[in-house]
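Appendix B: complex inputs.
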Amino acid sequence: MALAAAPLAFIGTFFVFPVVAILAAGLAPGGVIDPSAVIDVMRRPYVLDVAWFTLWQAALSTVLTVVLALPGAYVLARFDFPGRRLLEALAIVPFVLPTIVVAAAFLALLGPRSPFGLRLEHTIWAILLAHVFYNYAVVLRVVGGVWASLDPRLEEQARVLGATRWQAFRKVSLPLLRPAIASASSIVFLFTFTSFGVVLLLGGPRFATLEVEIYRQTAQLLDLRVAATLALLQMAALAALLFAYSRYQQRLSVGQRLLGRGVAARPVRTTRERLFVGANLGLIAALLGLPLAVLVERSLATPAGYGLGNFGALLGESARGALFVPPVEAITNSLVFAAAATAICLPLGLLAAAVIAYRQGVLANSFDALLMLPLGTSAVIVGFGFLLALGHLPIDLRVSVLLIPIAHALIALPFVIRATVPLMRSIDQRLRDAAAVLGASPGRTWRHVDLPIIGRAALVGASFSFAVSLGEFGATLFIVRPDSPTMPVAIFRLLSQPGPLAFGQAMAMATLLMVVTGASVVLFDRFRSPVATGL
Amino acid sequence: MLRLVDASVRYGSFAALDDVSLELGARERLAVLGPSGSGKSTLLRAIAGLQPLAGGRVEWDGHDLAATPPHRREFGLMFQDYALFPHRDVRGNVAFGLEMSAVAHVALDERVDEVLALVGLSGYQRRRIDQLSGGEQQRVALARALAPTPRLLMLDEPLGALDRTLRGRLLDELATTFAALGLPIIYVTHDQEEALAVGDRVAVMRAGRIEAVLTPRELWHSPPTEFVARFMGLDNIAPYTLDDQGRAVTAWGALPLPAAPPAERPLILVRPESLVPDAGGPIAGVVEARTFRGDHTSLVVRPEADGAPPLEVHAAGTDRQPSVGDSIRLRVDPAGVLFLPRSPTG
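Resulting structure:
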């Protein structure tokens, strides 16, 4: 367990301590615990309004996403058509895009400069659409994966026994898919409940989730007490949600024989099937492809026609002094921060993954759960916590250049661990035994069996932390210094400025960010599978 | 009454079912026998309506079923691995078909109890599927297929997933149950023994076509084609010509015949039990392998003649059998000689 010390110290200092600081600021603003302070804030009507809005927009986004994505999941699970694998790979892209890129893309599609003249910015529709765009892939992957491994003969058996298509789905497939749907819905609900960038940019002043309100109270109204109380409310809600979810999952699991992926897929046969598949592929193209296409199109559109003018303008001064520095510096900053965050996160993540993969028992499980906590809170809480807490450390990290990489590393850590644990577990003791029997010394066994897999895990972890850091927005916004913005922060500031130059620069930078994060995730996806290790 | 007329199913350019015509009597049990990939399961799926036909038709009592979806056909189908619903208990599985036809609750429970008693699983109503043994799952699947009183029962390799001993016992049970049911049954299997035990008639399938439909007795005693013979495990087959003494001249040697062979039958088949070790026999060879099989000893004999296929010999009795490496001579009991047409290749 000595290996666990470094990750524990990191989580303790940069997650537990800041969260305690938030608790203190909310519950004991004057240094002594004073529940009346919390009650006082909670009584303000807008606090309830914000909480209520957060809840119902998340619920509505979740229902909308599931309803739209279920037919798509069915299509990918049951039908084989040219380009199916490519589509499956591309469908994940929106999910990994930075929120700020998604917000920028929808602003391009629905905002004042929309090429279609749509004006939906600052409406609930913009928020809902962006949330569906973002989370469609979650339902597609989670539910589609289980659906593909459901034996299609179960439904056929129901049909022979007298069930219509719909009855066969409702009585057989749906109950068997329920755990997967519940799982996907919980993830979507969690993401939309803590939605920050999308609501901040697309919602305008009328709409605020708890996350957005915490930011406004802190950055604009400088009311840390209200912000801390909202953060408490947010954390309590998330804890309740995660608890309810884990209870529900335990109750639902049904033992069943699963098929290998893609076994059940068959060619499209009838006209009816062709229409159904076509409609869903059309929906995917319109919903997932259109916003990104418009983003790229807007980034290339200049007052003088199409060209690379907006990208060239990134080298010059930012529009109306939105950034204090030329936008190109934001790109350099982001790359440097991402490299630093990766350097911090990767060793910690691999250590933690090794502990989780090789140890069992209550201690290892609680270690695992503790390291997942940053995922269950939110980036805004992390940023806010940093702001409150890190002035109290022996070294005042608030002025350190390491502050942002540390925050990014903290947020990326759960992802890195989750992505690398399966790889670590794939190192089979029998492989080591086989190598030893074949005459390899322990050193050579380690080099030829363990090292290649650990190397692959490192690559996966690095690409993941790099991508997370590049796209991180919520936490960064709290702790970034005005003269060293990251790409997401720069995009946000540019989008907050009127005028075509700022808009063009924002579109160009969002396009760059999309390409870089998209590429690193495609890279990651190729290396993730333990099967692909060539062993 | 079920009738198939030139029924075809294609997967892309592959003909999984190729112009199959078939008729099934009102209480007839038809065993469909064939190697894997010969289209047996596709045949059942086509009859059930799960697989659209590329050509031909499936009829019931003279009505084309093309427009009748699977859930209106009132056919029972039992899949190879049973496809029991994992989220429902035994009662939930058996009652499924009754729920679909909106049977009243009381009648439903009665019927579930009745079919569970029929398959010998009374009292299993509340058991979970994953708590059942393979044999019990097979019975639940049968009870589920029977519960809505189908007008035709189809079973796809019902014993395929079970071990050998259990198979023997369940085969006897199934045969008894089928006889009591009095409804037409199609029983798909790749196992000759099952087909012979269950079917009033046996349809042998090969590459999407029906090669022959015949009684178990005919199938056993006089397989009509080379393919059927080989599938029944009869491999002593060779072309022959007649010499002037009326003997069949084969690669093994010149075999005396009791009577002239029928026309258009250029292949001779010698049953392994009618090859008898005999110092004066016309076939000379060397014993290559010897396996004790209880009621007989199986020998593989490599004939001396160049290019002659090895012969399988079932020698009766257990004592004084030749050993591996021995040179022996064989005579042919004419009762075990058959003549076959040349099978179309394909």
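The first helix of chain A runs from residue 5 to 27.
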